[in-house]
Amino acid sequence: MFGYMGKILRVNLTKEEIKVEELKEEDVKEFIGGRGLGTKFLLEEIDPKVDPFSPENKLIFATGPLTGTTAPTGGRYMVVTKSPLTGFIASSNSGGFFGPELKFAGYDLLIIEGKAEHPVYISIKDEDVEIKDASHLWGKRVGETTDKLLEEFGDKKARVACIGPAGEKLVRLANIMNDKHRAAGRSGVGAVMGSKNLKAIVVRGTKKVELADKEKFMSVVKEKIKKIKENPVTGGGLPNYGTAVLVNIINENGLYPTHNFQTGVFKYAYEQSGEALAAKYLVRNHPCFACPIGCGRVSYHPAIGITEGPEYESIWALGASCGINDLASIVIANHLCDEFGLDTISTGGTLAAAMELYEKGIIKQEELGDAPPLRFGNSEVLHYYIEKIAKREGFGDKLAEGSYRLAESYGHPEYSMSVKKQELPAYDPRGAEGHGVTYATSNRGGCHVRGYMISPEILGVPVKLDPHDVSEEKAKWVKIFQDLTAVIDSSGLCLFTSFALGADDYAEMLNAATGFEFTTDEWLKAGERVWNIERIFNLKAGLVPEKDDTLPKRLLEEPMPEGPNKGHVVKLHEILPKYYKLRGWDEKGYPTEEKLKELGLDRYY
Amino acid sequence: MVRVRVFATLRSIVGKNELELQASTVGELLEKLYSEYPKMKKELEKGAIILVNGKNIEHLGKLNTKLKDEDVVSIFPPVGGG
């Protein structure tokens, strides 16, 4: 097989057993790799109804056929598991250098099973794999853990993925950090790792990814890199200002969620924009493996020294969402989230929900004791509660459950701005209807990277769609975006390439690497298969479409109070049936037998 | 007068974040801007995102979108992220 290492590394922490298995060609032809392949294994190997924190849940690190190649942005990997935040499928993507290194060590997938008796880490040096004691690392932050492990490992070229204190404490917002500042951020994957007493994975590999047609691959890659460099977004906006270039445009369009989505305009957005970040804190760009874009930011603040980020989502979650305008506080808060191993989106979203509950008199100061009042705009809140959440101390213990469980415990789940219990990201869908559908139907819950409809609805790429249109045409684009995204996520590339590349470009790179010679439509069909197998996992886990494919009441019923989208709500009931139909699902949102047969998935459901 | 806000790379070209101009359509406004800041035309030749009071001109009257006093026009070079 080309593009693949052809091996799965399976580590059982209960039995302390390490096995290497062959990867089958028929599996990768169906599910590509990364997100798709990881989900296939998870669905086949666990009962989707299992408690996410039980040893029966598995944690899968999955690379794709383009991970570790010179394909532009070929540095991504996925963490696939059952989420303790949503109770559904989790697949969290990350960049940096860890994914390629896992592949260089000879493995396409790392499947972790069971639960260690005491804290451990997994050390991988090509074929030499060991489970090692990590008691001395337990409780340590991400930066220190990474440094210590690299020192112990004795090879500075090794790469580390680890959890911070939040993952150890089973915080449902905990992430897995690799290369110190890149995050497999969402759905609480870090808490699953913590539940297995697994602090870290250190990997060093010396192999190469073999390609089907090396010359063809090189010429195809060269052409794609040129497209990316010449594109004004991937060759201009992103390298110059990072992802935070979006702050102003999303705010000017009136869909920058502010004060827990109470409005879509934040009057201090200018002060926390990519432009402001570049002027005040940017030291240099920091591209991930094989990335010609380089949106990553290395920043400096005297209180913390050198750090990375913050990204658009983090600036928003720890900023406007909580009414905080002070960029310095946000830069520090983002650093703290990285260090404690917390997802910035869900942390910010949970704090914002807590602030609304506090301001409405539902959470009372007596409950917080001496802790800072949870008021919008109080930047003191950020730094104090981030640590409390990570350590599950005081009121942080309640916040550590995420916004939905928090709000529900007070009898007000409507103040949690989440879908499937996962906090929504930085776009108010009252200003982008298609994006609202992707929120409602994303298999991993509230998420912007499972079909980024902001691109056509707001940024005009690759077409200019009216953000308020809810026609079948819009639903069609949602499906295309979701399926193409599944292909990119399964290949091992970064989604940002799609600002410059189209489906044909990905098909060309995949074919040259794997030698499969699939048509673009066949690759997209694989993407559709990935989408549907995730849906099957969720249905088996207990998803009820009528109840779960929806949005917070506020977005469906409360008209946007001000700005360009004033008066708008999301017309989900109008567009969702059109979307289900295009997916080949019945009117209630269940995949039809016919569709499953067409995708070869009828054996699963 | 129309209030014009510029973003990203346009800021260093214009030398400020905001300015005021007299124009009756978006097309006319752009002509005036381009003649004063020729580099801006080049910067936007691969596309631009132009909003009038937060609404994209693509879904209004495109370059013929009418402008009146106090309107806010926001101009971005192509941007993306996520």
Automatic annotation (TrEMBL), chain B:
Pfam family, one: ThiS
Coiled coil: none
InterPro entries documented for this protein: Beta-grasp_dom_sf, MoaD_arc-typ, Mopterin_synth/thiamin_S_b, SAMP1_3, Sulfur_Carrier/Prot_Modifier, ThiS/MoaD-like
PANTHER family linked: SULFUR CARRIER PROTEIN CYSO, SULFUR CARRIER PROTEIN SLR0821-RELATED
Listed name of the protein: MoaD family protein
Alphabetized Gene3D superfamilies for the sequence: 3.10.20.30
Organism annotation: Thermococcus litoralis
Domain of life assignment: Archaea
Record lineage: Archaea, Methanobacteriati, Methanobacteriota, Thermococci, Thermococcales
